[in-house]
């Protein structure tokens, strides 16, 4: 069914609000709403723009693979949108793919997307985007060492582009090129111009960090190592403070290389070792490969050839994977060429068929002439037939007169038959009335029996619901009793073991001044007490939490809820592997929150559907819970025991809880918990 113009307009307005949040410092809010709306939108244009926004968000926080995924989703959704906005979206998507592949170290792939973007921009007169792609292409040429080609493109950007961002980036890249050509004075001139532009705008911190990084490079080339290190560390701190994680990683790699050249192997080892997990999480293959190479060199310098072999092996594995990926791209390019040739063959076949159709049309012209002659002959034949018909009309008139006389006789006969039929019909109705009365009485009896059966069915349903609620209450009571017993056991254990140990330690401390040799005994008792507290904390966890994956437990519980009720539960996870790796204590808290919310929905909400989303992103857990139940007025309702417990659990982890609910509109609950030390198992 065709979508209404009003629906499309509403969805486009929501997309505009998402971009407003993203561009005005509320990027996380934009991300959360975009994830939610992505499942609701039906309009292809809204879907494409929302996917593109998510791609920009992940690009900003250096989640390269996620950014590439959402960019391809945007292009897929845009496939039916061919207006000017659709073309612009395609060009922006090509730019994102180029930048993300450059961050991964896949420069050939990055070059391909910049070239495609520049060609499309030029074709549709998108001037700013055209020079933006030229600028990106120049950066790729720098990575290949093709400095002259990069210089030509950058000077063209400065001369003809009116975009300050492109001009700023061009100054920085020109500084990099001239530094590589050992023309440090020219390099510093361009970098100084870039720095002046950055200092006028406080939001250009990333560009400023880039400028500081390049100035540090020039210090190295002039032999001023200490000044270079100061510049690098300042640029690294600025990048970390503003969450420019990919730039911070590049600067870290440069610092490690400088320390290695200064033969400060211990410091360099720490730098490259810390860079590896960051490079893996960001998908930066070139930095990851270089880190393993430098660790191999450090190990060789220390005569640790076993580690050198391990690091060298990993270096060549990554290098081979990059080359394999680029070969796959070449194969894909050959496939595209092959498909193009096949299409050209089909076009030639269609051209031959069109020639045949043209010849057939000429033959049809001759057939038309023959047809006109045949029509003239038929017209003559029709004139003769008209004359014959006129003679026939006269004969018909005579026959009609005879028929009228016969009809008069038949009318008399019909009147007699009608009288007979009327008498029979009256007799039939006299017999029909009592039969109808009996049928009505029988129908009323059936209707009364049906109402009685319906009432009995409703009573049975109420009984079943009552039994279910009684069963739920029994389960809750049993759970509470079990918890009370467990608390008594823990209290007894704390009193008997931990309390006894602490009393003994206190007594030992009071005698320490007279018997200093007891210090070792006190340390032993402290270790024993710590071990008992640690075992106690692990014993607090349910057995099912310890022995099973968290995602499996959630899905198993959902299956139980759907089997015991008529509620449909939809749940999604991102990233399942990392969620299963969360601290078991935090998993237990999340599972308790999940159980409390579903129990509230079953008891009070009268909902048909529950939507749950659990994401682990940027060291933060995002838990979104929604139902389509009766809802409640948040401003007039105090939190019950269950929601209060949930709030306390979340605050223990420095998290936030937001409840959005209105009468007859359902309930939405958003929970954010920063991971910090809870990301791995205790």
Gist?
The chain is mainly alpha-helical and 682 residues long. It contains 22 helices and five strands. The protein is flat and about 140 Å long.
Fold and architecture overview:
- By secondary structure, the protein is mostly helical.
- Helix content is 79%, strand content 5%.
- It contains 22 helices and five strands.
- A five-stranded mixed sheet has the order 1-2-3-5-4.
- Helix 6 packs antiparallel against helix 7.
- The protein is flat and about 140 Å long.
- It starts with a helix and ends in an 8-residue tail after the last strand.
- The model is unreliable at 333-338 and 678-682 (pLDDT under 50).
- Residues 489-677 form the Histidine kinase domain.
- Keywords: ATP-binding, Coiled coil, Kinase, Membrane, Nucleotide-binding, Phosphoprotein, TPR repeat, Transferase, Transmembrane, Transmembrane helix, Two-component regulatory system.
- Its EC number is 2.7.13.3.
- It is an enzyme of class 2 (transferase).
- Residues 324-358 form a coiled coil.
